[in-house]
TrEMBL record:
NCBIfam families: dapA (TIGR00674). Keywords: Amino-acid biosynthesis, Diaminopimelate biosynthesis, Lyase, Lysine biosynthesis, Schiff base. InterPro entries: Aldolase_TIM, DapA, DapA-like, Schiff_base-form_aldolases_AS, Schiff_base-form_aldolases_CS. GO terms for molecular function: 4-hydroxy-tetrahydrodipicolinate synthase activity. It catalyses: L-aspartate 4-semialdehyde + pyruvate = (2S,4S)-4-hydroxy-2,3,4,5-tetrahydrodipicolinate + H2O + H(+). This is 4-hydroxy-tetrahydrodipicolinate synthase. Its EC number is 4.3.3.7. Belongs to the DapA family. It comes from Rhodamnia argentea.
Length: 382
């Protein structure tokens, strides 16, 4: 105890705090007209020590990436580039707002059976923006643990905070995700140099898809930024929502691109060289979306799906998808606010769309129904 007391006293000694100026203290001039204050005094052990004002030290690369080079179950960037159909998977909820993992697992299994090759976990469609990071990483880990051998798991670990994006990506790869999806910083937008620095910080950790959706972020990621980042061997490609002319700019230069627009994905794939699509519609009709990506040019199927796609995006995603999955009985009619279901007229319209396309092409095995307003549960606190 005496040793502990002396240690505690030592930490409080004036030798570790800024000393008072006394007669006889000296100033030593240093370069550029600055002065360094020097004083000699006794510390707790009776020794004379010289005190100087502390100077900040910058240590380059002090925070090294928290990553592993263990190759077991790892996925290469080339493996990610080979994916044609990736579903931005929906996250279902229990009535109290927690994840409905049973419904989630069923939905993932339906994707696997219908030939989907990858899933985006916790993206915009999966409402990652409404999750805590604990929930987010847990869902990524759960998906890898249960389905990682059958489907590629791409975790949305992007953020408008570089610090958060780094931390989430470290955790996502640590729990086994095969690749990361990263958006550019939104709301608190940065410069082009800032975009490059932001993405450089996360590209070192593993295969990465960069997501460009200016309608949500308020800032386009221009080709000059992507071409700079393409020097990294970990850039798997770009999820591009600007349009097919932009898609062609990248594919002509050997950069992998997935269409981020379901209404343009058929032409992007077969006319503009896209690898495939990261799709919302495939939550509902995964088999038909696979035909669209693997079966060659199929304009008649594309036209058949267009009314459904337009219905899905009548309001901002994922409002339409959440409503549709509830009507199909695949997910409970539970919404985390600020999302609310489509109005009754649009719900009736969806039932008619299902009948026109064919119930057998949609996920689930229950009859589609028109839900009433009071069937839905809206959760503000969870």
């Amino acid at each position: 105890m005496d040793a502990l007391r002396s240690y505690g006293v030592c930490l409080r000694e004036p030798a570790l705090r800024s000393p008072r100026l006394r007669r006889g203290d000296a100033y030593k001039r240093i370069k550029r007209g600055h002065y360094k204050f020097l004083t000699t005094h006794s510390n707790a052990f009776g020794r004379n020590v010289q005190w100087r004002f502390p100077r900040a030290a910058v240590l380059p690369n002090f925070h090294l990436p928290m990553r592993s080079y263990e190759v077991k179950n790892r996925t290469s960037t080339e493996d990610i580039k080979a994916l044609r159909l990736i579903t931005a998977i929906k996250t279902p909820y229990l009535p109290d707002g927690r994840f409905d993992l049973e419904a989630y697992d069923d939905l993932i299994n339906m994707q696997i059976v219908q030939g989907v090759e990858g899933v985006i976990v916790g993206g915009t469609t999966g409402e990652g923006q409404l999750m805590s990071w604990d929930e987010h990483i847990m869902l990524i880990g759960h998906t890898v643990n249960c389905f990682g051998g059958s489907i590629k798991v791409i975790g949305n670990t992007g953020s408008n905070s570089t610090r958060e994006a780094i931390h989430a990506s470290e955790q996502g790869f640590a729990v086994g995700m095969h690749a990361a999806l990263h958006i550019n910083p939104y709301y608190g937008k940065t410069s082009l140099e800032g975009l490059i620095s932001h993405f450089d910080c996360v590209l070192s950790m593993g295969p990465t898809i960069i997501y460009n959706v200016p309608t949500r972020t308020g800032q386009d990621i221009p080709p000059c930024v992507i071409h700079t980042l393409a020097k990294s061997p970990n850039l798997a490609g770009v999820k591009e929502c600007v349009g097919n002319d932009r898609v062609k700019q990248y594919t002509d230069n050997g950069i992998a691109v997935w269409s981020g627009n379901d209404d343009e994905c058929h032409d992007a794939r077969w006319n503009y060289g896209a690898m495939g699509v990261i799709s919302v519609t495939s939550n509902l009709v995964p088999g038909l979306m696979r035909e669209l990506m693997f079966g060659g040019k199929y304009p008649s199927l594309n036209s058949k799906l267009m009314p459904l796609i337009e219905w899905l995006f009548h309001e901002p995603n994922p409002i339409g998808l959440n409503t549709a999955l509830a009507q199909l009985g695949v997910a409970r009619p539970v919404f985390r606010l600020p999302y609310v279901p489509l109005p009754r007229a649009k719900r009736v319209e969806f039932v008619n769309l299902v009948k026109e396309i064919g119930r057998e092409y949609f996920v689930g095995n229950k009859e589609v129904e028109v839900l009433n307003d009071d069937d839905f549960i809206l959760i503000g606190r969870y």
